[in-house]
Amino acid sequence: MQEQEVEILQLIEKNANMEPSKIAKLMNITEDEVRQLLRGLEEKKAILGYSTLIDWAKVIQQEEVTAMVDVKVQPARGVGFDKVAERIYRFPEVKAVYLMSGAYDLSVSVEGKTMMEIGRFISEKLSALDSVLSTTTHFILKRYKHDGIILEDDDDNDKRMVVSP
């Protein structure tokens, strides 16, 4: 991969909404070159999509529940964990699947409208898979930082009492 391609990926990873004109200025190339690089990266599947990070806690009516599910599985002979992971990530409730080291095999991010909805998904769909041996569910109560972005309001109002000798 070219140095310019890596540079452009680093820029848009932080801000997918960055205008090609700004990228061109930062990289000291033309806008046409930026568009050509972006098109090439999309064709190579290095860029899989562009997304917006939304703090849904600020939009009370739209707030969803997220759970991280630790999954212990029986890997399939010859294909390891890949086929099991593929079966799991095809469920629409599943937002991410990661192969992990440690006490469990897969970490699965699941979203739903309520805790009960997620519970039903885990008991009726995820745990029902033949290769799934066990699950442990952790519900996310509050997000502080996501994808490198701090979600808390940056107040300078430190509410701690000052303690002096």
UniProtKB/TrEMBL annotation:
GO terms for molecular function: DNA binding. Residues 69-143 form the Transcription regulator AsnC/Lrp ligand binding domain. The keyword Heme does not apply. Gene3D superfamilies: 3.30.70.920, Winged helix-like DNA-binding domain superfamily/Winged helix DNA-binding domain. Keywords: DNA-binding. Pfam families: AsnC_trans_reg. PANTHER family: HTH-TYPE TRANSCRIPTIONAL REGULATOR PTR2, TRANSCRIPTIONAL REGULATOR, ASNC FAMILY. This is DNA-binding transcriptional regulator, Lrp family.
